[in-house]
Specification:
mainly beta, Coagulation Factor XIII, Chain A, domain 1, 5-stranded mixed β-sheet, 4-stranded antiparallel β-sheet, 2 helices, globular, binds 2-acetamido-2-deoxy-beta-D-glucopyranose, binds copper (II) ion, disulfide bond, carbohydrate metabolism, monooxygenase
Length: 263
C-alpha cells in the first residue's frame, strides 16, 4: 500500500473529495528515552480523562478544524485539561509522536504558552498567549503541490511512529507551560485543515526570560482566513514561495526590548 496511498491522496486532492483516509494525530511524546502516553480518540474517554498519567489535552476525534475562528483552534476539541505535566529542561527536545500521518502539503508549527499561577488546568486556552518556537514548511521544490514539505518528510506512510522533535529554548524561564503542535494541511484547494494538539509541560532550567509582546498570539486570533498561505490553491501556480502563517519564531534571545538587551 505504500505506493498506492500517495497516489490515492493525489487523486483525492485533485477532485476535492472530502477527507476519507484516517490521518492519525499526535499520540505520544518523548523526552530523551522517556515516553509519555497521550490521549487516544479510539479508546474510551472514561479510561483516560483524569488518569494520573495523562499529560495531553483531550482531542475526541482525528477530524480537522476548518476555520481559523474556531475556538478549538487553540487545543482541539474538547480540549479537557490533563492532571499531569511532562517534566523537561529548557534546551531539551520534546518529540511529538504521530501515527499514520498521511497528508503531504502544508506547514507545521510548535507553540508554547506560559501558565500563570502555577497551574495549566485553569487556563483559558483562548486567552493564553502563545509564542511560536518552531516551524517548517516546504523543504524542496519543484513547487508547492509536488515539493517535499516537512509534513511529508516526517511521516513513514506505514503506521510506524512519525517523530517530530522540537527544542525548548534554553533561555526560557522555568515554570508550567502548554505546548501546542499544529499541522496545517493545504492539499485541498482553498479548504485549509488545522490539526492542533496540546500537552502540559513542567519546564525546569536556568533560563530567565519570556518572549516580548510582539511574539504573543491568541488562538483564535493568530491567523487570518484570507492569509494567502491559508486560503490557498497550491495547484494554481508553479511556485515555491510560501510564508508560514503566525509570524516569526521566538529565537529565545530577543527579550523585552531588542534595543535594550541586558539593561
Ligand atoms: C502511543 O503509546 C501507546 C501507549 O503506550 C501505544 O499503544 C501506541 O502504540 C503509541 N503510539 C505511537 C504512534 O507510538
Ligand atoms: C532536537 O530538535 C531539533 C529541532 O528542533 C532537531 O534539529 C534535532 O535533531 C533534535 N535532536 C534530537 C537528538 O532529536
Ligand atoms: C515541576 O517540577 C518541579 C521541579 O522538579 C517540582 O518541584 C514541581 O512540583 C513540579 N510541578 C508540577 C505541577 O508538576
Ligand atoms: C515549474 O517551474 C520550474 C522552475 O521554474 C520548471 O522547471 C518546471 O518545468 C515548471 N513546471 C510546470 C508544470 O510548469
Ligand atoms: C509569495 O510572495 C509574495 C511576495 O513576493 C507574497 O505577497 C505572497 O503572500 C507570497 N505567497 C505565499 C503563499 O506565501
Ligand atoms: Cu485528514
Amino acid at each position: 500500500m505504500a505506493v498506492t496511498v500517495p497516489l490515492l491522496l493525489a487523486v483525492l486532492a485533485a477532485f476535492s473529495v472530502p477527507d476519507v483516509l484516517a490521518h492519525g494525530g499526535l499520540a505520544n511524546y518523548t523526552v530523551g528515552e522517556t515516553w509519555y502516553r497521550g490521549y487516544d480518540p479510539d479508546l474510551p474517554a472514561a479510561d483516560q480523562l483524569g488518569q494520573p498519567w495523562m499529560i495531553q489535552r483531550q482531542w475526541a476525534s482525528i477530524d480537522p478544524i476548518f476555520s481559523v475562528d474556531d475556538k478549538y483552534m487553540a487545543c482541539n476539541k474538547p480540549g479537557v485539561p490533563p492532571p499531569s505535566y511532562i517534566p523537561i529542561q529548557a534546551g531539551e527536545n520534546i518529540t511529538a509522536v504521530y501515527w499514520y500521518w498521511l497528508h503531504p502539503v502544508g506547514p507545521m508549527t510548535a507553540w508554547l504558552a506560559y501558565c500563570p499561577r502555577d497551574d495549566c488546568t485553569e487556563v483559558d486556552v483562548n486567552q493564553a498567549e502563545w509564542f511560536k518556537i518552531w516551524e517548517a514548511g516546504l523543504l524542496e521544490g519543484p513547487n508547492l503541490a509536488e515539493g517535499i514539505w516537512y509534513q511529508k518528510q516526517f511521516q513513514h506512510w506505514d503506521g510506524s511512529p512519525d517523530l517530530w522533535p522540537v527544542t525548548i529554548p534554553k533561555s526560557l524561564k522555568p515554570g508550567l507551560y502548554m505546548v501546542r503542535h499544529e499541522i496545517l494541511s493545504i492539499h485541498i484547494e482553498n479548504k485549509p485543515q488545522f490539526y492542533p494538539e496540546c500537552a502540559h509541560l513542567n519546564i525546569t532550567g536556568t533560563g530567565t526570560v519570556l518572549p516580548p509582546k510582539e511574539y504573543l498570539k491568541k488562538f483564535p486570533g493568530a491567523y487570518d482566513a484570507n492569509d494567502p498561505s491559508i486560503n490557498i490553491n497550491v495547484y494554481a501556480t508553479n511556485t515555491t514561495n510560501y510564508t508560514i502563517p503566525g509570524g516569526p519564531i521566538w529565537d529565545g534571545f530577543t527579550i523585552v526590548d531588542k534595543y535594550c538587551l541586558g539593561c
